[in-house]
Write a structure and sequence with these properties.
Strand order of the largest sheet: 1-2
Order of helices and strands: HHHHHHHHHHHHHHHHHHHEE
Largest sheet: 2 strands, antiparallel
Main location: membrane
Shape: globular
Subcellular location: Cell membrane
Number of domains: 2
Structural class: mainly alpha
Strand content: under 5%
Keywords: Cell membrane, Membrane, Transmembrane, Transmembrane helix, Transport
Number of strands: 2
Number of helices: 19
Membrane topology: Multi-pass membrane protein
CATH class of the largest domain: Mainly Alpha
Radius of gyration: 22 Å
Protein name: MFS transporter
């Protein structure tokens, strides 16, 4: 009789002992997300200097950004399945190591081709690293308030990472050299490797796991063709090359979907994306990625080329976006369990759109504090409302066996959205610039400004579309009461 009261006392002591490790692991995984996201933008500020030193063409300059996002997004689904089947911790560590080596190679590049190849390799290893990290987060924080907090932290890092990359890129380019925008990753990688080995617990999908090789080939080639086709649109939407690659990409992706319905263990189980809420979250994530990667690149160009800010000042000029996200995110996190994700997911994109429309009013002789700063603050408020619930929604109700595939889809949506968005924005920018008659240096700056303004308007339209998607697809209310099992959903449905 005396032994029975002592048994229930053990579990609380165990939870108390393991909880600090869980939160330390969250710190390591969040650092991973920061590295992956900021590397999508950290070279933006450095591109003018790198273009001069390596004699890059304008096309090569765009591909320094696109190569990373394209390789990352196209290989993420395969990376997610490798994480599920081979082991998430093992995949995470290999991705970390490879990302560090690729970063060092890029930092030592001697010409444009080497730099673009290095960026592609960074993206390829990020495709191993990112889904493994997110899947580890999913199986570490399975449900309840802790899960919401963990995903809010992770989502905030994702939202702020692009702007952090611009600031860090400005500091390194100004006081060191553009090459340090890549070499700095080595320090992050060392921390991530040590933390991963000590704090992260291995997990993988159980059962007989087989790789969907044909699916991996078709989705990779399909996404690659699609992004390349959009990049060619700068030279004309009606050109045979543009139409051909876009058609090829769509055809290969249709074939990929057909393959996924026929194989026993698909690369992307269609149940992951056909869920209404998750599907909507993936679409919104793609649009948000296009804005954070594409629009911030052209803002960086405006700050340096038109307003004449040096790299450090241009990087710091983006800081209000990050600060606004970091300030608003805790309030959004507290509001999430009270009102649910749907109001945040509708209001957030509309607020971001308002900020982008404000930025579209820029002029060649304008003032940063009047024409740029308010728009960045408004964007930051909206992005915080989007990113706090987004990662959690994208993985709500996912079975542990599919955690890597769902995590990869979430990341892939953002990266492919970013690379496609950048290509589309480039085409819009080129068309707007071509519409301005250039006679001297002043009209040249006006032409650039017209192009940047057009991209901000296009990005605003995309965010309004994201809000409409939230209205239609995000049909969930506030979180359900905490469950005792991780397989149950995290949110209550709302009525039609």
């Amino acid at each position: 009789m005396s032994a029975s009261p002592s048994r229930p006392a053990r579990p609380p002591r165990t939870r108390t002992r393991t909880k600090p490790n869980r939160w330390l692991a969250l710190g390591v995984l969040a650092l991973t997300q920061l590295v992956v996201v900021l590397d999508g933008t950290i070279v933006n500020i450095a591109l003018p200097q790198a273009q001069l030193e390596l004699d890059l063409t304008d096309g090569q300059r765009q591909w320094v950004v696109t190569a990373y996002a394209l390789a990352f997004g196209a290989l993420l689904l395969l990376g997610g399945r490798i994480a599920d089947y081979w082991g998430r911790k093992r995949t995470y560590l290999v991705g970390m190591l490879g990302f560090g080596v690729a970063s060092a190679f890029g930092g030592l590049a001697q010409n444009g081709v080497e730099l673009i190849v290095a960026r592609g390799l960074q993206g390829a290893f990020a495709a191993l690293l990112a889904p493994a990290a997110l899947a580890l987060l999913t199986v570490t924080f399975t449900h309840g308030r802790d899960r919401n907090t963990a995903f809010a932290v992770f989502g905030t890092i994702a939202g702020a990472g692009a702007a952090v990359g611009l600031v860090l890129g400005g500091v390194l380019t100004e006081y060191a050299d553009w090459r340090w925008c890549l070499l700095v990753n080595v320090f992050f990688i060392v921390v991530g490797l040590i933390g991963g080995m000590l704090l992260v617990t291995e997990s993988k999908a159980e059962g007989d796991n087989r790789y969907d090789v044909l699916g991996a080939i078709t989705v990779t080639l399909g996404l690659g063709s699609l992004v390349y086709g959009f990049s060619l649109a700068e030279h004309g939407w009606g050109s045979p090359d543009t139409i051909g690659f876009l058609a090829l990409g769509v055809g290969l992706l249709v074939l990929f979907v057909f393959i996924e319905t026929r194989v026993a263990q698909p690369l992307l189980p269609l149940r992951v994306v056909l869920d209404r809420v998750r599907g909507g979250a993936f679409l919104i994530q793609a649009i948000a990625g296009s804005v954070m990667i594409g629009a911030t690149l052209y803002l960086a160009f405006h700050l340096q080329i038109v307003l004449g800010l040096p790299p450090l000042e241009a990087g710091l000029a983006n800081l209000p976006l990050t600060v606004a996200i970091m300030i608003v995110a805790p309030f959004a996190t507290k509001a999430l369990p009270v009102i649910g994700p749907r109001p945040l997911m509708i209001a957030g994109p509309l607020i971001v759109a308002a900020g982008l429309l404000y930025l579209s009013r820029i002029t060649a002789d304008g003032d940063y504090f009047v024409q740029v700063l308010p728009g960045l603050v408004i964007m930051g408020v909206g992005m915080a409302l989007v990113f706090v619930p987004l990662q959690n929604l994208a993985l709500t109700g996912v079975a542990p066996h599919d955690a890597g595939a769902a995590s990869a889809t979430a990341n892939s949506a953002m990266q492919i959205g970013g690379s496609i968005g950048l290509s589309v924005f480039t085409a819009i920018y080129a068309a707007a610039v071509a519409g301005v008659t250039v006679t001297d240096a002043a009209t040249q700056l006006s032409a650039f400004t017209a192009g940047y303004s057009a991209t901000f308007v296009a990005a605003a339209v995309a965010m309004v579309a994201a809000a409409a998607i939230a209205v239609i697809f995000i049909r969930v209310g506030k979180p359900a009461p905490e469950k005792t099992t991780a397989s149950e959903g995290d949110y209550l449905p709302v009525g039609m």
